[in-house]
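Note to self: the last two entries modelled the partners one at a time, which told us nothing about the interface. This time every component goes in together.
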Amino acid sequence: MRVRVQAEPFDYGAECTGFGQGGRDVGAVVTFLGVVRDDSGTLAAMEIEHYPGMTEKAITTIAEEARGRWGLADLLVIHRHGALRPGEAIMMVATAARHRAAAFEAAEFLMDYLKSRAPFWKKEIGADGDSWVAAKDEDEAALTRW
Amino acid sequence: MRVRVQAEPFDYGAECTGFGQGGRDVGAVVTFLGVVRDDSGTLAAMEIEHYPGMTEKAITTIAEEARGRWGLADLLVIHRHGALRPGEAIMMVATAARHRAAAFEAAEFLMDYLKSRAPFWKKEIGADGDSWVAAKDEDEAALTRW
Amino acid sequence: MIDILYFAWVRERIGLPRERVETAAETVADLVAELAAREERYAVAFADTSALRVALDQELSEFSAPLSGVREVAFFPPMTGG
Amino acid sequence: MIDILYFAWVRERIGLPRERVETAAETVADLVAELAAREERYAVAFADTSALRVALDQELSEFSAPLSGVREVAFFPPMTGG
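The predicted structure of the combined assembly is written out below.
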């Protein structure tokens, strides 16, 4: 299990290479990659603020729960902070399990919890000003399914 | 959208690199990798038979439905046939969408349908004989959620 | 003339991957009855059609489906891809 | 003495990322009332605590939670990671 919080870009393809493989008991790997979207067409950058110290702890707690609950053979979470441009990778998760349902569910659980329970805040830096991204009710509601 | 049916190995990491990225409207990429598991510890190989001609058509039909239903920006399916060793990659799917829910759902839909509606049959070649993998009731039941 | 393809254990039980047959069967079920009457290995392969699937010209179909115009029929067990 | 950290728009409204305060507040809510009474910028930032979250020593907590033994309090809006 690895958790990384960093300003630097990461190489999604390289992280996927060999992830969770090599053993005889992994049948399913799921990865998720989050990318900076530009809905308005005027986004200059997405600035991601975080709470150093708490971030690592919160992600590790969420990751430990996912690992235990779905019996994951391996798990990876990478989340960036700082200024990111449209199209850049923000974060990724990867899960490895015996069966596909466990790998999918664990990855979705990680995403739902990282979204609302890890201390990150996004600010859109645009041509017509800056604005903090508001948390969505549906993101909080998504937690009730777990 | 790309669909590949092949005997040759594929490079999962290389396929993930840059998948669905580069545009401004993709916020989420999900990939699934299926790997040959060895539950008994005696598996020599997994032999995958398929129905040339129908396989490509069936996968393309499933992929087109996923693309339309979840408005995917990109989609990739690779499925191998022939003799695979434990730990080798059998197949992968990748989906790219605006939001994470669509990317996850489309990938799970693809997996559920590929499992029961694409003409592949798995045979376990073991130390103590060969046996065809039986379809599971739960795999058929999984289709009812879509 | 119609091409008949067999896959997985259906192919193994019948002992060949494909054959061409002359048939007047109107439906898949009629064709199955004709084949099963031929020889023991066919009778065994088609003993329980609920354990089988059929494709007509490479599209999944039903045992009650008509065969008119069909050039390729395939019999196989439930798929196990993914 | 307690360290108070502010993030995102809470940090921007109050105008600083962290400060050290001497307080006798027994709960987070007491501390919020104390801060809000200080200056307009604090009053504005804490006007609606339902729009805020609080962490005590880097664990998400409640506004009703006691402060005894706590060294670090952080205030911020709902998180938007992922």
